[in-house]
Design goal:
Chain A: Keywords: Cell shape, Cell wall biogenesis/degradation, Glutamine amidotransferase, Hydrolase, Ligase, Peptidoglycan synthesis, Transferase. Chain A: Pathway: Cell wall biogenesis; peptidoglycan biosynthesis. Chain A: Substrate binds at residue 129. The complex is a heterodimer. By secondary structure, chain A is an alpha/beta fold. Chain A contains 7 helices and 13 strands. Chain A has one domain: Rossmann fold. Chain A has helices at 22-34, 64-77, 79-85, 95-100, 198-201, 203-214, 225-239; strands at residues 5-11, 38-44, 56-59, 89-93, 103-105, 111-113, 120-124, 130-138, 147-153, 155-159, 164-171, 181-186, 189-192. In chain A, the strands form 3 sheets. Chain A has a 9-stranded mixed beta sheet with strand order 2-1-3-4-13-12-11-8-9, with helices on both faces. In chain A, strands 5-6 form a two-stranded antiparallel ribbon. In chain A, strands 7-10 form a two-stranded antiparallel ribbon. Chain A starts with a strand and ends with a helix. Chain B folds into 2 domains: 10-280, Mur-like, catalytic domain (UDP-N-acetylmuramoyl-L-alanine:D-glutamate ligase), CATH 3.40.1190.10; 292-410, Alpha-Beta Complex (Protein-Tyrosine Phosphatase, Chain A), CATH 3.90.190.20. Chain B has helices at residues 10-28, 35-45, 49-54, 68-79, 95-103, 120-127, 148-159, 173-179, 253-268, 273-280, 308-315, 362-371, 382-388, 400-410, and strands at 58-63, 85-87, 110-114, 131-134, 165-169, 185-189, 208-209, 216-217, 229-232, 235-237, 243-245, 292-295, 298-304, 325-328, 355-358, 377-378, 394-398. Classes of the chains: A alpha/beta, B alpha/beta. The A-B interface holds A 13-15, 17-23, 26-27, 30, 45-47, 63-66, 69, 129, 131-132, 150, 152, 195-197, 200, 226-227, 229-230, 233 and B 139, 142-143, 145, 147-150, 196-197, 199-200, 205, 207-208, 218, 337-344, 363-364, 366-368, 370-373.
Chain lengths: 242, 412
């Protein structure tokens, strides 16, 4: 952590903040403050440079054209790649997840290069959009409870040899590859298709990012009864046949 | 139909009759007004019926993400100064519902029609409107994949050949993009509090600059057009520079914006602003919205907010703290089944209000309010929320199906 405050960077809200993913930044900030940390939240618009000294970077989902524009501007800027080289924690959702991979299909139907921070390649599915509640088991090395989220995408994301799946789906499509994977990560760079927003449904992921950023194994406990109530309801709702 | 033009063809007459019969059956079976089923039956028998019904009318179409139903009502009241009006006042705003409404107005001179955003271009082709009012576009029901900018693009393509006068909000870049393909546009500076769907230039994708009330794209020069009508506080300035007071029973800035746009529409039909605005005062509640009801010996004001932009405008019109507020959120089909949008709403604006949370998705809202650092109480029913609320009139804000649930319960 740099200086005395946690630097939380919210990347390109003007382009990638369509599906309530700003909630991830709100939850991380809230949970950091509940642990007595000072938080500096930095919202970076796409005509501004990405700071390279952030501790945690969050990127949300967006529509197809803004996704292409965001990828172009992030490649040109280079700041997020430099931050990753410095060991920053990066967590991305949906369109943002695809941008962090090697390439994805843009709004013009063409292959658009991404930032190559996660070893994945995304294409576009031919069938129906994946829309609905998801339930998945997170990679056991993180020791986190089940992942609950809402997916709304048409992407298919293939993992390369160095990426690990973030979770295995119990219900829902996740990466859309049919192999049951959902999301991916390389070191401290994470991607998921989960909205909800995902941190509101899984505050333990926000805590995971904080622990990685602070380089600690545990955080003081918080009163999580509303999160728990919501999790229980969503998990039980997803488990019931529609 | 008014006898000043060619009568309906026998086929169209048959279609209207069959539609009415189907609607009557549906009503008798207790399935609502029957307007949608009636319209579907009629359109099946005569696919061109909508156009035929409209050809005897001077039609204005109204579309937007928020404020369609209210603005349709305000325009209808204004135009009644000049002649009988037929309108889909209950908000059945897709082709079947519109057909049904028009079939019921055989003596009308004006058709004032609310149109669902996705159907605007098609309905505009079918009914050859004299005017089209476009209020605002913002994120709504995103799990249906209705991307906001794509919608603006479809409007732009659909309206390019229209002969209608387009009355459009100069303060919403997406609306300006959609409308500026039309040959005749009357720009109204109607304001738009919500800005988060228009930071990216709809034309070139550049980043929008938004100093004060102005906006422009720093890259391609796409910019706010000079308005000829301007909403200025409680007044609307007409193109001649005269300021007309807006006095409404409906609350809030957004309804003043709706009234300003309605006055500009009325002027296209020869109704002067003074007359139009005076008539709008009579509108008290629109399909239950803004209604103040008495329930369990308490007063409740019922407010509908379906999406982030709607919630933002609603927060600006409620009574100040310590007025109690009940929030009701569902996520059924008509609402969109994703609740992520709650995180685009700035609930810290409710600080100081006692807050009570109900609805199918009250736990989503509870987490949202917890993260916003607000005090709140989660209740199982509207009865429990009303019982728990401290004294004073209660503001109840609900999204679509939650609003209907509340109306049923409070007997409105």
């Amino acid at each position: 952590m740099s200086d005395s405050s946690l630097r939380l960077v919210w990347v390109y809200p003007d382009l990638l903040s369509t599906y309530g993913d700003q909630g991830n930044a709100l939850v991380v900030e809230r949970r950091a403050r509940q642990r007595g940390l000072d938080v500096m939240r930095i919202d970076v618009r796409s005509d501004q440079p990405i700071p390279t000294s952030g501790d945690i970077y969050l990127i949300g989902g967006g529509e197809d054209r803004p996704q292409r524009l965001a990828s172009e501007r992030l490649r040109r800027d280079g700041g997020l790649n430099r931050a990753a080289e410095n060991g920053a924690i990066i967590f991305s959702v949906c369109a943002g997840y695809q941008i962090l991979g090697h390439e994805f299909i843009n709004d013009l139907g063409e292959r658009e290069p991404g930032l190559g921070l996660i070893d994945v390649v995304s294409t576009r599915g031919e069938g129906e959009r994946c829309v609905g509640d998801v339930l998945a088991d997170i990679d056991p090395r993180f020791g986190l409870p089940q992942l609950t989220g809402f997916e709304n995408h048409q992407g298919i994301t293939h993992l390369g040899p160095t990426a690990r799946p973030f979770a295995r789906t119990v219900i829902g499509r996740g990466n859309g590859t049919g192999d049951g994977t959902e999301g991916a990560y390389n070191d401290t760079v994470f991607g998921t298709y989960m909205h909800g927003p995902v941190m509101a449904r899984n505050p333990q992921i926000a805590d995971l990012l904080l622990k990685l950023a602070l380089d600690v194994n545990a955080l003081p406990p918080t009163d999580d009864r509303w999160y728990e109530a919501l999790r229980n309801e969503r998990i039980s709702s997803a488990s019931q046949p529609a | 139909m008014s006898g000043n033009s060619e009568p309906l063809t026998p086929r169209a007459k048959l279609a209207v009759t069959a539609g009415r019969a189907a609607a009557a059956v549906s009503r008798a079976a207790g399935r609502g007004s029957g307007s949608v089923i009636g319209g579907r039956v009629a359109l099946k028998l005569d696919p061109d019926l909508l156009g035929r019904l409209a050809q005897h009318l001077d039609v204005v179409l109204v579309s937007a993400t928020n404020g369609k139903t209210t603005t349709t009502r305000l325009i209808a009241e204004a135009l009644r100064a000049a002649g009988p009006v037929v309108s889909n006042a209950l908000g059945a705003n897709m082709p079947a519902g519109i057909t049904s409404a028009l079939a019921g107005g055989s003596d009308a001179r004006f058709g004032v029609i609310e149109v669902d955003e996705k159907y605007l271009a098609g309905v505009a082709r079918d009914v050859t409107p004299k005017a089209i009012a476009l209020l605002n576009l913002s994120r709504d029901q995103l799990d249906r994949a209705a991307e906001t900018r794509m919608l603006a693009e479809k409007w732009r393509e659909g309206l390019a050949g229209s002969k209608a006068i387009v009355i459009a909000n100069a303060d919403d870049p997406l609306i300006v993009w959609a409308a500026s393909s039309s040959p005749t546009v009357v720009w109204v500076a109607a304001g738009q509090e919500w800005k988060d769907d228009a930071w990216s230039c709809p034309s070139c994708g550049g980043v929008m600059q938004r100093p004060g009330d102005d906006w422009f794209c720093g890259e391609c020069g796409f910019r706010r057009p000079a308005p000829s009508w301007v909403l200025n506080g409680d007044y609307v300035l007409d193109p001649h520079g005269s300021a007309w007071p807006i006095r409404l029973q409906l609350p809030g800035r957004a309804n003043k914006a709706n009234a300003a746009t309605s006055a500009a529409v009325a002027a296209c039909f020869g109704v002067p602003p003074q007359v139009a605005l005076e008539r709008m005062y009579s509108v008290q509640a629109v399909a239950g919205r803004y209604d103040v009801v008495s329930f369990m010996d308490r007063e409740l004001r019922l407010l509908l907010a379906k999406n982030p932009a709607g919630w933002l405008e609603t927060f600006s019109l409620i009574d100040p703290p310590p007025t109690p507020v009940i929030l009701a959120v569902n996520a059924r089909g008509a609402d969109g089944t994703d609740t992520s949008w709650l995180w685009d709403v700035d609930y810290t604006r409710l600080a100081g209000h006692p807050i009570f949370v109900i609805g199918d998705r009250r736990l989503d809202l509870a987490v949202r309010l917890e993260v916003a650092g607000l005090d709140f109480r989660v209740c199982d029913t509207v009865d429990e929320a009303v019982r728990s609320a401290p004294p004073g009139r209660i503001e109840l804000i609900a999204n679509y199906t939650a609003f209907q649930d509340v109306r049923r319960r409070v007997g409105n």
